[in-house]
Amino acid sequence: MFRVGLTGGIGSGKTTVANFLADLGASVIDTDLIAHSLTMAGGAAIPAIRKEFGEEFITVDNAMDRQKMRACVFNDPEAKRRLENILHPTIRLACENAAEAAEGKYLVFVVPLLIESGSWLQRVNRVLVVDCDEETQIARVMQRNQFSRDQVCSIMRTQVTREIRLEHADDVINSQQELVQVQRHVELLHQKYLQMCVQG
Ligand code: ATP
């Protein structure tokens, strides 16, 4: 099935655009939601995390202890790598299962770190970047998450720059426009994607 990879920096408007596409009938697969579900109570990644990191990283209700894991991987690249070695293949498999079950005309994978991860670029037919300037991102996330400016900027530093992201884009949606204009732009893109599906 035709696959679109939707990406953008933190607070750029990915979810907003993905919701518009879902309303139009695309099958949206949100990799963040999938990743989260894998480490929740009884999630598919729990047995491997228990084996690799020990019981102390598992809560009483059989979920990953997020706080403890965050603290563990924060200053330990080796631990981060071990966690990623568990999560990445599990996320990949869960995404493929979700793709198999999808009933829309085409698939939209929402992948915040699509450019950063490399392998995702080979798994999609088209890269859609949701773009806005950095000040807009900062203002949105400060307001939405009650984060300080420094907190938002430190997250942004772990992501590729706006320029690099745009270099990989096949399509760009400017999320600085009014929502109604964003929606109109999404509708046009949806028509384009439907045509691309037919053309194979
Ligand atoms: P994250 O990376 O943090 O998951 P995201 O890229 O999915 O964020 P959204 O959650 O869609 O971004 O948008 C971030 C915030 O900006 C939300 O509060 C959303 O309502 C708002 N927003 C998105 N697009 C617009 C727009 N065009 N005009 C005004 N507000 C917007």
Describe the structure.
- With 200 residues, the chain is of the alpha/beta class.
- The protein has two domains: 1-26 and 104-200, P-loop containing nucleotide triphosphate hydrolases (Rossmann fold, 3-Layer(aba) Sandwich), CATH 3.40.50; 39-103, no CATH class.
- Helices cover 57% and strands 12% of the residues.
- It contains eleven helices and five strands, in the order βαβααααβααβαααβα.
- The protein has helices at 14-23, 31-38, 46-53, 66-74, 77-101, 114-117, 119-122, 134-145, 149-156, 162-167, 179-199, and strands at 3-7, 27-30, 107-110, 126-131, 171-174.
- A five-stranded parallel beta sheet has the order 2-3-1-4-5, with helices on both faces.
- Helix 2 (31-38) packs across helix 5 (77-101).
- It starts with a strand and ends with a helix.
- The structure holds adenosine-5'-triphosphate.
- Residues 8, 10-16, 112, 140, 144, 175, 177, 179, 182 line the site of adenosine-5'-triphosphate.
